[in-house]
Amino acid sequence: MHHPLTSGASLRGLMPEAQAMLDSPARSALREAASALDLAEQFHMPLEMCLALAQMARCYRGLQALGPAEWYLEQSFLWAGALGGVDQGLEVLCQMAEVSCALAEQLQHSDAAAAQAALERTRDRAFEASAMAAHVADPDWEITVLLRISDVLDRCGDHDDAVALQSRAMHLIYHSQSARRGSDFAAATLPLDA
Question: Which of 25, 177, 185, 193 is the most exposed, having the fewest neighbouring CB atoms within 10 Å of its CB?
Answer without folding.
Answer: 193
